[in-house]
DNA sequence: TCGATCTTCACTAGG
DNA sequence: TGAAGATCGA
């Protein structure tokens, strides 16, 4: 029966799937059947009797990936996937903490803060400590705290000599204290808490080690320090850690991912080397050749060459537009041409480096009447109406939830303004009680009446919710809080928001809690852990628009990569750091390898960015692709008869367009200044004798220089 | 308290 | 450019 399971695997896949019961690193190239290997590995372990479902723990980064793994596994063999622990790092940690909440010092009903809520908690903390949020921007404090948590370090273990860091450490400590007081945890805390739970409780740790003999990790290149430490803790000395990843697709260093974990795993577990999955089942040969040539320029790779049994396919089409508008027009025209040829819109994608690039595309798409769908933007559980409703629900369970209280104390407006809230916060601080308790005890004052009404409302919600089931509670809260009335009165987008609130009631109706008496808590937890899909109505056949990051893991018959310009892709923020540039190159590698048959690379010679025109030069990444793989298209024959398949064809000669230059300098050019050192031109203004350059210096930051004075201090690099 | 106006800021983003 | 947050006046 094994044969069934293993049929159709290539030699490398087979070697990975049937790897003995010890640790391994699988270096899985783009389109090499990674998910298949992972799920088949689990099925094989079960089928050969090496593992039972309870001894499997599989970790992914996204809920989508976790679901996909479960679905595919269930399709592969009749096994109850519920007995396995398959989920995201955060989902599994949440599970551990809920099960052992007594050992963690958390209330059973602890709530999870998303990053927005974490930030408002920090703002509130700064205010209560009377610390200026100019000197300590909440975002930076948040980054510091999360960074420390991801390094596994608590405030108490830190020390510093400079007053600034000292203050940050104090804030970290105060933030944790506030969270503990309020019974909430942020995302990083989920990880760190469960790490500490296991590392401080030998018996518990031993219990899980004895249970989870087989740990499997997807997208291992995206793990941060703490996640790897967590895995190592669970693996202990005896269990098998099977990690699948691709160092060439590591594009999340900016949020703490450590590609180094891949090499570390080899060393830590004495694995001779990675199993390489290099056969690609997705893209045409030319596309792979381009990807290979590009990524070869990066240093320190584990090394891998993608190849395909399929033919070379089409050349990669290159279009050099004179403006961002022309670039968008080209893409849309080409999409229409492909559609006429029978390609479906949903099998085509436009990828870009940054979300701002979608605007002009949308504009042209609307004009052309082409259906499109943008990934990105608000997700379901991030919408304000949903957050408001959930905040009332939270107050109904636990009125001491200051975050929730602050969110809705004046929504809908009930005459409790900023002033009154501030008074309330002062009172709560002075008395050392929650805002709710302070509100309950509030005596005089101008808004005391309004406050009392709010207290009464929450009390009423609490009492009336008690006997109700989850869906009834959600519904009650929406009606009684006044949210429904508020959105009914809202002419602008009230209708849509009401529809979303109804959708929330639907979600609550269909929700299946593990423990019925904790249904509300579980529902709220799920809402924090799974914010929902980025895109709405997936039904219609529509062109897909998304960032390259969002495209990771996806594939399309035709892919357009737009904005291939120095400063944009690679992004200028990565110019002064070689590591940053390598990550940009990996991002380009990800973009290229999304395409099955057809790949278009486009750039514009002028682009509106932040309301200013820029004249960037073409991205170095285009030049890093061997010329023989490229076919240059040009607009010169745009007026060709409509019988032409595409209105943009290869010209008889490649038109040499003038590159925008200012005083001999170009945007994107690297240079050196006698005083400021190395930098890159990121913008230019003026003409003739009166030219100013904006330069991003590695050491001195961004400066405008007047060429009349600076010209002789600059040298090209 | 609320709306209108001003200022600021800008890459990528999962749980 | 344009969205979002801060500030100001009614």
UniProtKB/TrEMBL annotation:
Top-rank taxon: Bacteria
Keywords carried by this UniProt record: ATP-binding, DNA-binding, Helicase, Hydrolase, Isomerase, Nucleotide-binding
PROSITE patterns: UVRD_HELICASE_ATP_BIND (PS51198), UVRD_HELICASE_CTER (PS51217)
EC number(s) stated in the UniProt entry for this protein: 5.6.2.4
Binding site for ATP: 28-35
The UniProt record lists the keyword Transferase: no
Protein name in UniProt: DNA 3'-5' helicase
């Amino acid at each position: 029966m094994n044969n069934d399971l293993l049929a159709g695997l290539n030699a490398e896949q087979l070697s990975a799937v049937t790897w003995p019961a010890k640790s391994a690193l699988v270096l899985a190239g783009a389109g090499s059947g990674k998910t298949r290997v992972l799920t088949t590995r689990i099925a094989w372990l079960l089928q050969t009797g090496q593992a039972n479902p309870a001894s499997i723990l599989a970790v992914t980064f996204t809920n989508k990936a976790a679901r996909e793994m479960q679905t595919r596994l269930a399709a592969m063999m009749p096994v109850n996937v519920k007995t396995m622990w398959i989920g995201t790092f955060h989902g599994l940690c949440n599970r551990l903490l809920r099960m052992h909440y007594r050992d963690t010092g958390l209330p059973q009903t602890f709530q999870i803060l998303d990053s927005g809520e974490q930030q408002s908690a920090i703002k509130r903390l700064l205010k209560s400590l009377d610390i200026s949020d100019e000197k300590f921007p909440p975002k930076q404090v948040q980054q510091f705290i999360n960074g420390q948590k991801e390094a596994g370090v608590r405030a108490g273990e830190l020390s510093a000599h400079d007053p600034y860091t000292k203050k940050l450490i104090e804030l970290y400590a105060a933030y944790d204290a506030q969270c503990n007081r309020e019974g909430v945890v942020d995302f990083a805390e989920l990880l760190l808490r469960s790490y500490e739970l296991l590392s401080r409780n030998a018996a518990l740790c031993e219990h899980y080690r004895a249970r989870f003999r087989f740990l499997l990790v997807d997208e291992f290149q995206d793990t941060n320090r703490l996640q790897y430490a967590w895995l190592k803790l669970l693996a202990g000395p005896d269990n098998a850690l099977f990690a699948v990843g691709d160092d060439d697709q590591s594009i999340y260093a900016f949020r703490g991912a450590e590609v180094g974990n891949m090499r570390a795993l080899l060393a830590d577990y004495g694995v001779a080397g990675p199993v390489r999955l290099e056969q690609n089942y997705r893209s045409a040969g030319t596309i792979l050749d381009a990807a290979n040539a590009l990524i070869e320029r990066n240093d320190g790779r584990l090394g891998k060459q993608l190849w395909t049994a399929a033919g070379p396919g089409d050349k990669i089409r290159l279009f050099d537009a004179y403006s961002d508008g022309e670039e968008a027009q080209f893409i849309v025209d080409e999409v229409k041409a492909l559609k006429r040829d029978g390609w479906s819109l949903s099998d085509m994608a436009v990828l870009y480096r940054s979300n701002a690039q979608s605007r002009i595309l949308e504009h042209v798409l609307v004009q052309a009447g082409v259906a499109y769908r943008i990934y990105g933007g608000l997700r379901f559980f991030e919408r304000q109406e949903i957050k408001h409703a959930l905040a009332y629900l939270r107050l109904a369970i636990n009125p001491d939830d200051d975050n929730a209280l602050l969110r809705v104390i004046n929504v809908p407006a009930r005459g409790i303004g900023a002033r009154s809230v501030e008074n309330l916060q002062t009172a709560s601080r002075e008395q050392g009680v929650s805002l709710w308790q302070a509100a309950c005890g509030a005596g005089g004052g101008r808004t005391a009446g309004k406050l009392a009404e709010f207290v009464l409302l929450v009390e009423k919600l609490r009492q009336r919710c008690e006997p109700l089931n989850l869906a009834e509670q959600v519904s009650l809260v929406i009606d009684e809080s006044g949210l429904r009335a508020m959105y009914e009165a809202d002419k602008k987008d009230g209708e849509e928001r009401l529809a979303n609130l109804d959708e929330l009631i639907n979600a609550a109706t269909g929700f299946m809690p593990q423990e019925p008496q904790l249904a509300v808590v579980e529902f709220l937890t799920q809402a924090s852990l799974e914010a929902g899909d980025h895109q709405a109505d997936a039904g219609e056949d529509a062109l897909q628009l998304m960032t390259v990051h969002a495209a990771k893991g996806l594939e399309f018959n035709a892919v357009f990569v737009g904005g291939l310009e120095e400063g944009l892709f690679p992004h200028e923020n990565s110019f002064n750091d070689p590591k940053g540039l390598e990550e940009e190159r990996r991002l380009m590698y990800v973009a290229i390898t999304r395409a099955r048959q057809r790949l278009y690379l486009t750039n514009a010679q002028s682009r509106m960015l932040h309301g200013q025109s820029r004249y960037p030069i073409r991205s170095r990444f285009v030049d890093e692709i061997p010329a023989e793989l490229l076919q240059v298209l040009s607009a010169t024959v745009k007026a060709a008869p409509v019988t032409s398949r595409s209105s943009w064809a290869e010209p008889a000669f490649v038109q040499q367009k003038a590159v925008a230059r200012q005083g001999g300098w170009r945007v994107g050019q690297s240079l050196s200044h006698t005083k400021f050192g190395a930098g890159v031109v990121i913008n230019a203004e003026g003409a003739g004798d009166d030219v100013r350059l904006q330069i991003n210096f590695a050491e001195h930051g961004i400066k405008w220089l007047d060429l009349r004075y600076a010209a002789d201090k600059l040298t090209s690099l």
